[in-house]
Design brief:
Number of strands: 0
Structural class: mainly alpha
Radius of gyration: 24 Å
Strand content: under 5%
Helix content: over 70%
Largest sheet: none
Order of helices and strands: HHHHHHHHHHHHHHHHH
Distance between the termini: 14 Å
Length: about 500
């Protein structure tokens, strides 16, 4: 163990850590889905509606209170570890805590003070006032949790985080269910308050647990190091990007149905928009959970490598991660196209969504690669560049939607989505390749597209859903191997992941 007991970089390889984090996230997602079903039956449609309104209102305050601190904590902690200065993480944590307290308390105070106005005029139900007050009160704890989870992620304490997150989920559900049974009755306002009480209790438990675990680490007292400037440089751009993205999403959700209504061919704007945003997007992005886990881990890993000037490691991570995202994206893109009809009919009972899922599935490789590219760009200290690209793409998106929706309907929505996301992806990729010194040979994406299209065509002539899925997988894998997109190196790497010793996972 090193001087502070936190430099655990060698314990879990990053791609294995991503798998572990993915499994935990999937477990929590399934548990959360089951709990959501219980809530819908227990508190009814009115309670769920009130809860969604309260959480959406508090979501913007939470984003403002978080102010990019989680990613900043990951980045700065990883930077100190990369420079082999684990003792300085004390000062990083202190600075992040102070920054988070100021931002979160400010956001919480604004929400608390304006809660009566929001409850009466925005939500339109005074019963939500206690829930808004409680939500405001728990914002600081939630934001401080972000600091601690960022720290433990940077220190590669994934197993610890997984255990704490599972405990948090179980405690939240237990508190919610108990309070609903003993106190709420059939009152929707009380039911909403019980749910927020459960989540607040879980957040407080997580914060307390992670603080105790951090205190138990042996820490060497050192002279203070300057953190404020680096913290502001890392956190402020991320905060601006998060707030901007949240605001733009809210504006889009309000604007899209109104602009769609001006198109004569759109009979039900809310239904069409709902099919894309509420049905298609969740399905097509669900397989990306493993990539999102990898993206989260890549930020501190690349920050650590950059601080240590490990160019070889950076090159390897960029090359390997982009390849994984590309192949993973093309695989699920083809599957979504083949299985669009049964997915939309079985999950939603909505055959009208099939066309949209097949259309948007074409964009899956770009979206998956963009998620990884964005994370790696941030990990290499290019937060300001990411903000510029997000501002540009968001501004273009609003402009395109305003102009295209009345004329082209949902086809205009797709065009705007494609253009803006493609611009953001290409700019981020260009920046990443420039700072990492990597390059992508032109033939690799061309051959991958050729393999995916050929496999999709071949699988479409196979009978049965299962046969098509298996056929597509076999054909795509064979063609990628034939084209030398995947080779012996990739198989050895995969086998190496599977052979990670148990003692390495403690």
């Amino acid at each position: 163990m090193d001087r502070e007991g936190i430099f655990l970089h060698k314990k879990l390889p990053i791609f294995y850590s991503a798998l572990l984090l993915t499994l935990v996230n999937l477990l929590l997602r399934f548990v959360g889905t089951g709990f959501q079903v219980y809530l819908s039956r227990r508190i009814g449609a009115a309670g769920i509606g009130l809860l969604q309104l309260v959480m959406s209102t508090g979501g913007l305050a939470m984003v403002a209170g978080m102010a990019g601190i989680r990613t900043a904590a990951m980045y700065l902690t990883a930077e100190e570890l990369g420079k082999n200065r684990p003792e300085n993480t004390r000062h990083v944590l202190s600075g992040c805590f102070l920054y988070s307290i100021v931002c979160s308390v400010t956001a919480a105070g604004i929400l608390f003070c304006f809660a009566p106005v929001i409850a009466e005029n925005w939500i339109g139900d005074p019963r939500t006032l206690p829930s808004l007050h409680l939500l405001a009160a728990c914002i600081p704890a939630t934001c401080l949790c972000g600091v601690m989870t960022g720290y433990f992620t940077a220190a590669n304490r994934i197993g610890t985080l997984a255990a704490v997150e599972v405990a948090e989920q179980l405690l939240s559900m237990a508190v919610t269910m108990t309070s609903l049974t003993l106190w709420a009755g059939t009152d929707a306002g009380r039911a909403c308050l019980c749910v927020i009480l459960g989540s607040s209790t879980g957040a407080c438990l997580t914060l307390l647990s992670l603080i105790i675990l951090r205190i138990r680490e042996k820490s060497q007292r050192t002279a203070p190091v300057p953190v404020a400037g680096r913290l502001m440089q890392a956190a402020v751009p991320l905060a601006l990007a998060d707030v901007l993205k949240s605001g733009i999403n809210t504006a889009e959700n309000l604007m899209v149905p109104k602009r769609l209504a001006k198109n004569a061919t759109v009979s039900d704007p809310l239904a069409d928009f709902g099919r894309v945003s509420g049905m298609v997007f969740p399905v097509m992005m669900f397989p990306a959970c493993i990539l999102f886990a990898l993206a989260e881990l890549l930020i501190p890993e690349l920050a650590r490598c950059s601080a240590a000037e490990s160019r070889g490691r950076i090159s390897y991570l960029v090359r390997r991660s982009l390849k994984i995202a590309m192949l993973y994206g093309f695989f699920f893109s083809g599957l979504m196209i083949l299985l669009a009809d049964p997915l939309c009919r079985k999950l939603y009972g909505n055959p009208e969504a099939v066309r949209y899922l097949k259309l948007y599935a074409l964009l899956i490789p770009m979206l998956y690669c963009d998620a990884i590219t964005d994370a790696m760009t941030k990990g290499l200290g290019q937060q300001k560049a990411c903000v510029r690209y997000n501002i540009l793409s968001s501004a273009l998106d609003v402009a395109f939607l305003f102009v295209l929706l009345p004329r082209y309907g949902m086809d205009g929505y797709f065009a705007s989505f494609l253009i803006t996301h493609l611009i953001n992806f290409l700019l981020s990729l260009r920046r990443l390749l420039k700072i990492s010194g990597e390059s992508i040979p032109f033939y690799i994406p061309v051959l991958t597209v050729t393999a995916a299209v050929s496999a999709l065509w071949g699988a479409s002539h196979i009978r049965g859903i299962a046969g098509q899925a298996l056929g597509y997988t076999a054909l795509l894998g064979s063609l990628l191997y034939l084209f030398r997109i995947i080779g012996q190196e990739d198989f050895r790497w995969l086998i190496g992941l599977l052979k990670v010793k148990k003692r390495d996972c403690i």
